[in-house]
From TrEMBL:
It comes from the Bacteria. It holds the Pfam family FAD_binding_7. GO terms for molecular function: deoxyribodipyrimidine photo-lyase activity. This is Cryptochrome/photolyase family protein. It comes from Phenylobacterium conjunctum. SUPFAM superfamilies: Cryptochrome/photolyase FAD-binding domain (SSF48173), Cryptochrome/photolyase, N-terminal domain (SSF52425). Transmembrane segments: none annotated. Belongs to the DNA photolyase family. Residues 1-129 form the Photolyase/cryptochrome alpha/beta domain. Its EC number is 4.1.99.3. Its cofactor is FAD; (6R)-5,10-methylene-5,6,7,8-tetrahydrofolate. The keyword Flavoprotein applies. Keywords: Chromophore, FAD, Flavoprotein, Lyase.
Amino acid sequence: APVILWFRRDLRLADNPALQAALRSAAPILPLYVLDETPDLRAPGAASLWWLDKSLAALAADLEARGSRLILRRGPAERVVADLERETGACGVCWNAMFDPGVPARDARLAEALAAEAVEARRFNGGHLLSPDKVRTKTGGQFSVFTPYWRAARPLVNPGEPAPAPAALSAPADWPGSDRLANWGLHPTRPDWSKGFKDWTPGEAGAAARLDAFVHGALKAYAGDRDRPDREGISRLSPHLHFGEISPKACWRAAQAAALRGEVPDAQVDKFLAELGWREFNANTALAAEARGDAPEKVNVDRRFDAFPWRDDPKAFAAWTKGMTGYPIVDAGLRQLWTTGWMHNRVRMVVASFLTKHLLIDWRAGETWFWDTLVDADHASNAGNWQWVAGCGADAAPYFRIFNPVTQGEKFDPDGTYVRRWVPELARMPAKLIHAPWAADKAILSACGVTLGLTYPHPIVDHGVARQRALDAYQSLKADR
Ligand code: FAD
């Protein structure tokens, strides 16, 4: 009897604990992916589906190269997996855990149903350095601040030995039927904005190549360059990590090995490991929120913010999504997102601050936009970071710390290279004025081909006025207590 290897958000053959367990069982392996249609689980956004489409194609090809196949089925996963188990007489099901809201409970129900049929469900942690339900304070409590969390968590990380992809997977005598990936229609058609996603290579090989390029390149100056959207100072591993095309332990090992070889200073490596730590912290926090019954993408961690006077302003929100706010660094970020499915972290913070503070629009609207447009959209990291910027999250930046989009631009994109790339109508502006075109006199604007209000918008809010309005709103919250 075969063992079902249920791929979920672990679309890789190397360093995959569920796959290793299936191999150890010595049974024929039946690889499965279910397009999960469980009601009440949050459906992936459009950019994520684009990625999934490509990633599944890559995984299927990698399996075929090893004499195996990827069986595709759709429907509520609980039913689909149990049906396939009965259909094939499988002796066990192996999978790696996921912690999205609703999934652990669903998985537990499925494991119980399988056990009732004497089929063993074997579950592993393949997506995190540490299982998010494991790290607790000394007294068993929940960490709410990153630094003590990381001080406690980091020594617990055991990156382990690499488990390379097997050369072959033993095939079952009969293959069950499979859907065709193309029939799932995951690739967007109307509108197919994803043409600009061409720099991505979803799949395990693409992930490994990214990690390799990063470790031999940007990692050397990561601590400083990671804040510079005008440089390629980061890894761009986030969508690969989200879909589990590479394991965070493999990233950890590769960065530490570069330090051991003396190629990269420890401080640079530590900073990178700490960013992987934020991914862990967000997963840990989201799971705790769910345990309280609070969906992380809906409920303020700091419940005082439940009374926050958010504004309803569809016109301003639309200008923000389109990158037409009149603030060049904000617009550049939102256009990078729309065009490539990804945005630099520094700029994510700037645009999120702009939405929640300058426009006083609820962070949940921004979170939803990112959910739909990011290829790395992740329930824990997206909600966690939005709440962090909005001031209502775990270990959040204080609300009254309001980014000035002009000085942020001047500091982190000093030559305007990033803005020039994504807001081409400002490409000819001198570096000194590119982050505040309204401050330029008419002659300069006209020499650069810029007519404010015509070729590029006037700022939709005045920074000083918006800042005061945000501070007043925050003050009203404190007065309410
Ligand atoms: P690197 O700088 O190379 O970092 C390496 C890895 O560490 C990343 O791939 C990521 O897995 C992790 N990481 C880095 N920073 C963070 C962070 N602040 N929080 C959690 N993990 C981090 N990241 C997502 O993966 N999915 C999201 O949906 C997401 N939404 C965000 C929303 C907002 C408003 C903000 C401010 C940040 C968000 N981030 C999200 C975090 C961060 O912006 C991205 O992880 C990062 O930009 C990815 O680029 P990279 O892989 O080059 O990062």
